Amino acid sequence: MIIREALTNDIPSLSKLARKTYSETFGEGLTPEQLKSILENTRSEEYFKSVIDKDTILVALINDSIVGYIQLSNVRYSVKGIRITDQDQAIHSIYVDSDFQGKGVGRSLMDAAFSHPRIKKAENIFIDVYSENTRALNFYTGYGFKTVGKIDFKIDEKIIGFDLVLMKHAE
């Protein structure tokens, strides 16, 4: 497995993986309209084109195919009672193709993220996760993340649930 920063020509593959993985994981709990909105706004090629120069996206490749990615960004939300500074960073998303889950791809991506200068310079690292995604919650707590709050999960400005916000002090 090779892990490297995403390139502009990776965008179609990134979008395809993000759309597939998100649909498989959360698609049944959303209406078709909600799913379409999320996929267009946060998992489309246009979305990745808009963030590739400001976020850091690391991709995992096996046999020259992208099988996972992790997106690092500035923190894009606020949490009641938690002071977020410009030095803080977020793991905005981490996705692994379902055919490769349980094979160490997610762990390799997370380890690469923690070795990246963007995260090494952070004071705190945040991640938000769907409150019922136990597998992801267990994965993040294994890395020392602790729940510090929750944020509304909105689709087209309509609140449909909430995500837990987890935080870890940088080492």
Per-chain topology:
Blueprint: E1 2-5, H1 11-26, H2 32-42, H3 45-51, E2 56-62, E3 65-74, E4 89-96, H4 105-115, H5 117-120, E5 124-130, H6 134-142, E6 146-155, E7 158-169
Parallel strand pairs: 4-5
Antiparallel strand pairs: 1-2, 2-3, 3-4, 5-7, 6-7
The biggest beta sheet reads: 7 strands, mixed
Which structural class do the helices and strands define? alpha+beta
- The number of domains is 1
Poorly predicted parts: none
Q: Please report the total strand number as a whole number.
A: 7
Strand order of the largest sheet: 1-2-3-4-5-7-6
> In one word, what is the shape?
globular
Give the CATH superfamily. Answer: Gcn5-related N-acetyltransferase (GNAT)
Q: Give the termini distance in whole angstroms.
A: 26 Å
CATH C-level label:
Alpha Beta
Q: Give the rounded overall mean pLDDT.
A: 92
Question: Remind me, CATH topology?
Answer: Aminopeptidase
| Reported CATH architecture | 3-Layer(aba) Sandwich
CA-atom Rg in angstroms? 15 Å
Quaternary state of this entry equals: single chain
